[in-house]
Design brief:
The complex is a heterodimer. By secondary structure, chain A is α+β, with helices and mostly antiparallel strands. In chain A, 31% of the residues lie in helices and 22% in strands. Chain A has 2 domains: 120 residues, OB fold (Dihydrolipoamide Acetyltransferase, E2P), CATH 2.40.50; 42 residues, no CATH class. The chains are: A alpha+beta, B alpha+beta.
Chain lengths: 190, 146
């Protein structure tokens, strides 16, 4: 009995067998490593809950990373990126769907020499059976709501983010301190 | 009896998988740039060259990973009581740092996850990649105004 359960647990750890999920995908190509268009149905899950049984009722209220439990094969897919070209992840866009069955469209990425499993960029999402797609581009709207002052200024969020700017002011662009920065920048912009 | 064994096995499947307690030393990296190749080779998106971008990505909610010395990347889901793996302050504090952490290691569908119980050492930023790669992406540091 224990052996059978062990075999199942070992099977869970294995990389997902490559399948083609590109049928019907309207995802934009980004030219990334190992990129494949992928449209599939999945349940949006809280990764800590799924892996460790740590399951707050509200899916972590937006604090946590979320996963996509793919309907076709039960694989747990990690959505790393939303559809914006702005250094933005996917969890904020997927949070309204946590616990729900959705259809997602986007691209799987990752080189098989570097990682045994691909990661996902979600570009569009809708609840299963819903007619309309939602673009996965909510992150910046959420940031603007949380940072109304900086949002009113010119420039992209990452140039104005108070937390990022505080870190750079404290330890420099390289993270080595302001003195190291000064010496580097003098040479870099010569 | 056989039926019961199968029911128990499927119940095991539906339950969270058992974790292994490990200690791992590695650099806190921006996993999207590392795995997607969006900024070029993996060596260039680590350390000082990529520190500013690592801050942007951590703040932007891209998962932070721990790149261990053997090349394994552990997706960090929680650090001690802090489960804010979607852009939390702790992730900005450790961006590009080489840390040693103890925690629960889960593997699922080929991906490694780490639930950190304790950061037992923080060596700071020691991977001086700017010496080889400058700044990645090259627009990360704005040119000083005249």
């Amino acid at each position: 009995m224990r052996m059978i359960a062990g075999l199942f647990a070992a099977a869970l750890a294995l990389p997902v067998v490559a399948q083609d999920f590109s049928a019907g995908s309207e995802a934009k190509e980004w030219g990334l490593l190992g990129e494949e268009k992928a449209r599939f149905e999945a349940k949006v899950v809280d990764l800590l809950c799924e892996l460790a049984g740590d399951c707050p009722a509200d899916c972590g209220a937006g604090r946590r990373q979320l996963g996509l439990l793919r309907a076709a094969d039960g694989a747990l897919i990690v959505p790393m990126k939303n559809g914006q070209p702005l250094f933005t992840g996917a969890a904020t866009d997927l949070f309204p769907y946590c616990g729900k069955d959705v259809e997602v469209d986007g691209v799987l990425v990752g080189d098989e020499e570097q990682t045994p499993a691909k990661f996902y960029m979600v570009q569009m999402v809708r609840e299963v059976d819903a007619a309309e797609w939602a673009r996965a581009n909510l992150w910046t709207k959420d940031w603007e709501a949380r940072n109304p002052g900086p949002a009113a200024e010119k420039g992209p969020w990452f140039r104005k983010d108070p937390r990022v700017n505080a870190k750079i002011a404290e330890s420099g662009w390289l993270g080595l301190g302001l003195e190291a920065d000064e010496a580097f920048l003098k040479e870099y912009f010569q | 009896m056989r039926k019961l064994v199968w029911i128990a096995a499927f119940a095991a499947l539906a339950s969270p998988a058992a974790a292994e307690r490990i200690t791992v030393t590695g650099e806190a990296i921006d996993t999207w740039c590392y795995f997607s190749g969006v900024m070029g080779g993996a060596d260039a998106v680590q350390g000082t060259a990529h520190h500013t971008c690592a801050l942007w990505c951590a703040a932007g909610g891209i998962p932070v990973g721990l790149l261990a010395e053997d090349g394994t990347v552990y997706m960090v889901l929680k650090i001690a009581a802090d489960d804010a793996a979607n852009g939390g302050d702790m992730l900005l504090r450790i961006a590009s740092h080489v840390i040693t952490a103890t925690g629960e290691h889960h593997v699922r569908d080929g991906i490694n996850y780490l639930i950190v119980n304790d950061v037992v050492a923080d060596a700071g930023i020691v991977n001086l990649t700017h010496e080889d790669y400058g700044v990645v992406p090259d627009f990360a540091i704005p040119e000083p105004k005249e």
